[in-house]
Design brief:
With about 250 residues, the protein is mainly alpha-helical. The protein is about 80% helix and about 0% strand. The model has no long low-confidence stretch (mean pLDDT about 85).
Length: about 250
């Protein structure tokens, strides 16, 4: 049955079905991650140097840290599947051209999310930990509360995942006419200042190093989006001129 033929009740039924599937996916992934919590903790704490001692400071700290890690990692692993369920719910209402755009955004969103996680885990966190520990007085040893550590790193993962989606938002705003490509180029220096201010707001920590590691990728993504949109407009303009020439010949 097509989207136009579905009744309101059928739409609600479809929505409920998608919600159940999303909750089932997240539930299964949570239990799998809880079952494999030891290797997950090993991966999550890999950016820490060997001299840092890991601990929990309350009787229930270990249990809640395990629950927290399983939930966070389960959501990260399930993100593509959850996004797919959302896509399948809205897809019947879209035109073929809109579907191609949505599928492109879907692929980019997954790439951006996992690219952000990889960037943080393999590049940012090891260097950030090294910088933070360098300020410790000589002879002092670092003891990390596991629950606090998980809270910080997953806040950083989430922040960078959002930042890596900047190109999607910019392209969408340009396509619907809120921004123009020429306007963004002309106001580039002000946009960069705004991006640094935004980075200062969403960075989970308050140190200058994390701020720069957040702001620089945002600026690079902004410049990359401008470059991509410029090429796209040139391609569209060329196709339009070729079509006009063909029409003139006819």
């Amino acid at each position: 049955m097509s989207d136009l033929q579905m009744t309101f009740t059928e739409h609600l039924g479809e929505f409920r079905s998608r919600i159940i599937k999303v909750l089932s996916i997240l539930g299964v992934l949570f239990f799998l991650c809880f079952w494999q919590s030891d290797p997950i903790f090993e991966v999550l704490t890999r950016p820490l140097p060997p001299e840092v001692e890991k601990q929990f400071i309350s009787l229930t700290g270990g249990m809640f840290s395990t629950f927290k890690a399983a939930a966070y990692v389960g959501v990260l692993l399930g993100f593509p599947l959850v996004l797919y369920q959302i896509l399948m719910f809205i897809l019947p209402a879209l035109k073929p051209k809109e579907k191609r755009v949505i599928f492109g955004a879907f692929a980019f969103s997954i790439t951006a999310t996992w690219g952000a996680v990889a960037f943080v885990h393999f590049l940012l966190l090891p260097k950030a930990v090294e910088v933070f520990l360098s300020f410790a007085p000589e002879g002092w040893k670092a003891n990390l509360d596991l629950s606090a550590y998980l809270k910080v790193i997953f806040a950083i993962y989430l922040s960078f995942a959002a930042v890596f989606h900047l190109p999607i938002f910019l392209v969408a705003l340009i396509r619907i006419g809120i921004f123009t490509l020429g306007g963004l180029r002309a106001q580039r220096k002000y946009v960069i200042v705004i991006l640094f201010a935004l980075a200062a707001i969403i960075t989970p920590t308050t140190d200058p190093f994390s701020l720069m590691m957040m702001a620089i990728p945002m600026c690079l993504l902004f410049e990359g989006t401008i470059w991509f949109c410029t090429l796209w407009e040139r391609k569209k303009g060329k196709e339009l001129r070729e079509n006009e020439e063909e029409d003139d010949k006819k």
